[in-house]
Structures are given as structure tokens and as C-alpha cells.
């Protein structure tokens, strides 16, 4: 990396410093270009055979990250949790989407609801726990209290206030729905009514193996990665072509030539055969006869293999930081029919193996993130026979970003 780099407001010329500063620097050509120009660098119409990938700025520039959060992550159904977190009336969890704190709760009449988690009085964040059980939400600042359906039920010292209606000062609602075991929210309605219809083939496929029903939640794991969320999506869509290089142990038990990928604008689905015949090892059992790896736009990944299901929420924290929240489920029948000791061993070994695979993926994606800062790289190419998943993902993402720019978001 040679040339002039901007570090905060200091210009650095010394090439010996660049390796130390690499993570914090970007070539000036990128930082001085407008966000709109960077968005339009990726051509939506070019066929995959001739197309180049989105430029590096889509993965490294905070302005692109901000645009994604203001557009893609507001106008689409975004995965924020799983249904077992809100299984019983009064159960809730909170989160942050872009700048918006939200709370998801199952109310007393068993209805799933979500709200902006901000008090209507002075903007204090009402619910400060990550998750829990309650029968009302009370703001810790001045005690304003809201029912689980969002209505304001208590506000003290309102005497002499004019033009105030408790009915109009409830927590502001956020659209919420479930998709299989995932909980999705949408901060802004854009009239898109085709989500159900467009995603139902994938949901149907997953449900036929046990997805919405028949699974028991086992545990949750977190990974904080130093890479852009899109690298993790693309890594899961590459037709398993990284497996023999990145996951040498996994490659021994998965039948790679059987891999198939199907991609639409809202999802991609990769399927393949699992354990090789007569493989009775725990690893073989973990993968069973076949698997599905699916990505629902924008940020939900689903892995269904053997008796296991894991859902991954990809939560972008910055252009180069993503939190992965993994929830592990097992088939209820498998749990019922396995002895306690055997089950405990199986879970422990499986989680260890899964952790290894995830760490290998995170490591390679973080390595790519560093490569994206190189002045020698701006765009890459697609392999037309196998990389239609990432290509469709980029085309849909590009369409959403352009829409956001047109709307002035
Ligand atoms: Fe991988």
C-alpha cells in the first residue's frame, strides 16, 4: 500500500507506517467519492458472466454502512431474535437497529408486539434489560408506565397539562412477525406485501425438515467479528467452494459435489448430501444425511443438518464489525429418544465442532475485510456457474440502496 492516506485529519506518506495504520485508513479515491457514486459503481443489469462485484467501499466505508442501516435495515423485515425468547405472555427482549432501540414482547393476550423502546416523556430508553419477563414497562426516569400492548397506563403530575391524551402517548409500535423460529421487525412500512409469498418456497422446504415446529431450543452463542456483515452472507452462498480450503475437517464428512444452490431476490438456499455412507461418528451424525444452508435477505442465516438447526442473526455494528447471534435447536424427537448422557455428549461435541467451523469462517471473512482495504483491490468477479447466490444478493441490495437514495434516506 503506497501513496497518500488519510488517518483522521492527518495525511500519512511514510509507507512503513501503513501496515500499522492499515485498519484505520482508506485510499483517498474512496473517501472523496460520493456515497451515491459508490452505490452506482455496482451495475444492476450486467449479466453475471461480465459483472464485477460491488466495490470495496460497500464493505469498508462507514457512509455506506449508515446508508444500509437507514434503508435496507429499516424497509425490510430484519431478523432480531427467536420465538423462544417471547414464548410466554410477558416475555420480552430488546435490541438496537441502527439508531432505533426497540422492544419485542408477547402481551397478556398472547399477541406478539414490538415497540420503539423510547419513553414518550423525555426519550429515556424504557426497557434496559436485554430480556426478561414483566407485566408492564416502567420508565426508570420519571415512572411513566406502559402496558404490554403499548398503552400509557401511568404518568404522574399531569395537572394543568393541555392537549394531552394518554391514548396518543403510548409506546410507538413497530411491525413484527415471525418466520419459522425467527422474530423479524420492520421499522418502516414500504407497502411490500409480497414477503410471505416470495419466501414461502423456502419456508415450506425448511418446514418439511422441522423448522417452525418440532424443534427444541438448546442454547445461544455470540461471536463478535471484525468484518462487514455482507462477507458473512456471501461466505454462506458460495456453493461450498471454500469448504475444502477453510474447513478441512468438515470437508471430510460433507459430500461437496452434491451441492446445489437456488437463489431468488429475498433468499438463497444451498442443499447437499451430508455424512458419507456408514459414517457413524458424532460428526457424521451431526450432519446426518443432508443439509440446507439458507440466507433470508438481509440478515438471517439458517443451517439445518442432521437433527440440528441453527439460526444466525447477523447484526451489523459498523462497516467492519458484525455481531453473530447463533441459536441452536435440536429435533424434539431426537432429544426424547436419546439418553441423557448420550445427549449431553452429543451436544457438547456438536457445539465444539460448530464453534470450530464458525471460527474458521470468521477468520477468513476478517482476512477478506483486511484485503478490501488494499489499494490494489476495488472490485472482484463472479464465477458464473456457482456464484449466482452472491450475485442475486448484490443485485437486490443494490436495488434497495438505490431506492433509498431516491427517497433521500
Ligand atoms: Fe464456511
UniProtKB/TrEMBL annotation:
GO molecular function, one term: 2 iron, 2 sulfur cluster binding
Keywords: 2Fe-2S, Iron, Iron-sulfur, Metal-binding, NAD, Oxidoreductase
Domain Rieske: 77-185
Matching SUPFAM superfamilies: Bet v1-like (SSF55961), ISP domain (SSF50022)
Top-level EC class: oxidoreductase
InterPro entries per the UniProt record, alphabetical: ARHD_Rieske_2Fe_2S, Rieske_2Fe-2S, Rieske_2Fe-2S_sf, Ring_hydroxy_dOase_asu_C_dom, Rng_hydr_dOase-A
Catalytic activity: choline + 2 reduced [2Fe-2S]-[ferredoxin] + O2 + 2 H(+) = betaine aldehyde hydrate + 2 oxidized [2Fe-2S]-[ferredoxin] + H2O
Enzyme Commission code(s) on record: 1.14.15.7
Family the UniProt entry places it in: Belongs to the choline monooxygenase family.
Name listed for the protein in its UniProt record: Choline monooxygenase, chloroplastic
Gene: LOC109465524
